[in-house]
Design brief:
Layout lengths: L15 E4 L12 E3 L24 H11 L3 E6 L1 H4 L5 H17 L6 E5 L22 H9 L8 E4 L2 H9 L4 E5 L9 H6 L7 E5 L14
């Protein structure tokens, strides 16, 4: 992973790992990890059509703030739709390009994207239970730590699932913000996210990713 080149997509291990650009500045710094569906883009059941892609209000502003601070912005997304055979990597790539274009038009960019297709109920070869890269596993976050010089102990994750927050805790982040957009308002999600506040790991709550501004230390 240390030699990952720009534009790398699906590796031999089946996980999408793409370096888009490096943050400005040098040295170790905290990162902002973001789930995709329900956080950066509006939740659409198994989003795979470009025409269904819409940015969540405030997402570009949060990402732009991180960009100005030189904080790496890393997208970490479970993509069970691929694992279940509902859509395929070219569909994912097309939606990602549309998302990146929309962010760019709003003056924002992400530095890397990781996507895990594995799911216990997937079709071969994606039918893997408890894959270390599938959130709440920390695998995708740890891949990012190999790509950038990240201070994981000062980094944060924003997600609409308790599993997103759990991935942050399992990766040794400072904390996670659970948002109600997307699946965040589903029964039990917020309570499960709150339960991830174990030891020094902090859990914050918001309505959407827009609430990260002024709330997350990584964006101060």
């Amino acid at each position: 992973m240390a030699d990952l080149r720009y534009g790398t997509t699906v590796g031999d291990d089946g996980v999408w790992a793409e370096l888009l650009n490096r943050p400005l500045g040098a040295g170790v710094r905290p990162a902002l990890f973001l789930d995709r569906d329900g956080v950066i883009v509006e939740e659409v059941h198994y989003l795979h059509k470009v025409e269904d892609m819409r940015l969540v209000a405030g997402a570009a502003e949060v990402i732009s703030r991180a960009n100005r601070l030189g904080v790496p912005v890393v997208v970490v997304t479970n993509q069970a739709g691929i694992g279940r055979g509902i859509f395929h990597w070219p569909d994912f790539a097309a939606v990602q390009d549309a998302m990146l274009d929309a962010l760019s038009a709003a003056g924002a960019h992400v530095n890397a994207v990781f996507a895990c297709p594995f799911h216990a109920n997937g079709v071969a070869p994606w039918n893997v239970a408890d894959h270390p890269d599938r959130k709440p596993g920390p695998g995708m976050l740890k891949r990012a730590a190999e790509m950038f010089r990240i201070d994981m102990g000062r980094s944060w994750i924003v997600g609409d699932r308790a599993g997103d927050v759990g991935a942050g805790r399992n990766a040794g982040l400072m904390g996670g913000m659970h948002v109600l957009s997307g699946h965040g308002n589903d029964e039990g999600e917020r309570a499960a996210a709150r339960a991830e506040a174990v030891g020094a790991f902090q859990v914050l709550e918001g309505a959407s990713v827009a609430d990260a501004l002024g709330r997350l230390p990584v964006l101060d």
